[in-house]
Amino acid sequence: MIEFRDVGYVHENGVKALDGITMKIDAGETVAIVGENGAGKTTLIKHVTGLLKPTSGTVLVDGVDTRETSTAALSRKIGVAFQNPDHQLFSESVKEEMAFALRNFGFVPDLVEQRVTWGLQLFGLDEYRESSPLVLSGGEKKRLTLACILAWDPAVVMLDEPTVGQDAIQKEKLGGTIKMLGSAGKTVVVVSHDIEFLWPLQPRVVVMKSGRIVADGPAPELMTKKEMLESARVAEPQLVSFYQALTHRPGSPFVDALEARQWIEGGRK
Amino acid sequence: MMWLSSGFIFRKGTSWYHRLDPRVKLLISALMFVTALIVRSVFQLVIVLAFMVVVAAVASVLKRVARTMVLTATFSAFIFIINLVFTRNLGTSALYASRFVAIVVSTSLFFITTSPDELEQVMKTFRLPRDVVFAFVTAVRFIPVMMLDALQIMDAQKSRGLELEKGNLLRRVRNMIPILIPLVVNAVVRSGELAEAMESRAYGAVPRPTSLVEYRFRITDKLVTVATVLTFVFATYSFYFLLPTLPP
Description:
The complex is a heterodimer. Chain A is an alpha/beta fold. Helices cover 38% and strands 22% of the residues of chain A. A six-stranded mixed beta sheet of chain A has the order 6-7-8-3-9-10, sandwiched between helices. Chain A has a four-stranded antiparallel beta sheet with strand order 2-1-4-5, with helices on one face. In chain A, α4 crosses α5. The longest helix of chain A is centred in the middle third of the chain and has 16 residues, at 168-183. Chain B is flat, with a radius of gyration of 22 Å. The two termini of chain B are 34 Å apart. Chain A binds chain B through residues 46, 49, 51, 70-72, 75-76, 78-80, 82, 84, 86-90, 100-101, 104-105, 134, 148-149, 152, and chain B through 149, 152-153, 155-163, 177-178, 181-182, 185-186, 189.
């Protein structure tokens, strides 16, 4: 579905943002991209939509080189919700804001109305249908941007820091939505610092540092590698710390945190 | 946007020119600006532009100034065509067009070598009201931030299927609405937040706040000031009494 082949990207000022990225994301996968600030996470997802073109290597989406197609064509398949919702809201009403992309993609009016209603209900925004998106709270704006993306039903959903400004209940709902998208066969890529939010999703985790991928694997395996996570300035989930603590107890029957987790979640040893 | 970034946004430099007192840099740019206005032929203007290029080389900003000149040439070509249509005089049209380039470069040389802090000091020496100085300097300081905002907004809207380069002129102008509204709203919100943050840090608490940096004229600044004034007087004299008969 999405393939990076030895991708490098150097900014105009000479700063190397990506270096030797080789990775494949299959259809239906849920992938979390984590890493310190400035690690290149957002730059990486901008390459998928063709907003940035690699200075070396190739990015393929469904076998098509992103250099040879437009962002508009790619965005029909790939929906990206960027970090700051204030960077996209402009319409007179929440309803119009949601309809913007649908009209750009040529949806018929009936379908636009249907998708708008579906999205607003999904994210609990139906009561603001006729309100200006600019008067919504930070969390509501964030949810609206997610609803806008899901409205056109892209095959790939990319979320850049989706939990910023969300309260605990909304985070839980968002986690549920991501799981639902995964079950519906969507490819979901989440860029986040919020490890506690990512842990229950049990995604494939890609750890980035200084524009490079330093680890790539399933969450239960990677999230227990404390030293590697710390080198990329990523904190381990609290549950993993708990499992680690169990292994350090005198006479502990567990070899490592992974075994402790299996025992607790399975209820046996 | 690239024109603005290349020509008017300060970036730190270590050249001898960067270290000059900002008032001296203002004097140099102002006199180059005035000279560009008073010249009477393209030949004289070429001499002024050559002088600007030398100043840019001394300030180690030649590449940026060259890029500004190239990007300004687009507007300059427009001025040339309009003048040629109405005056039907090649020399006058070329003079006006190249004068525009010279004016932009002289202004650009000041802004790309003078930090917003230095700019604030310069404005204070003219005893301008503090609020005016603060508003102007803040506006200058926020240009790069707004440019970054504009790029991020464009990315967000393109990801929702907006095609900025598509359609006729009217359609392209309409396509800018989803970019301009968030940009303006963000700027207004940011200015409100900045005002609150400044007030919570005692802005306006005393009529004459102290300054962390006090600029003093060094010997180099004095020498450069004298040399600049003498060069200006000599150039003006030459353009009016020694060179006026040269080709336009």
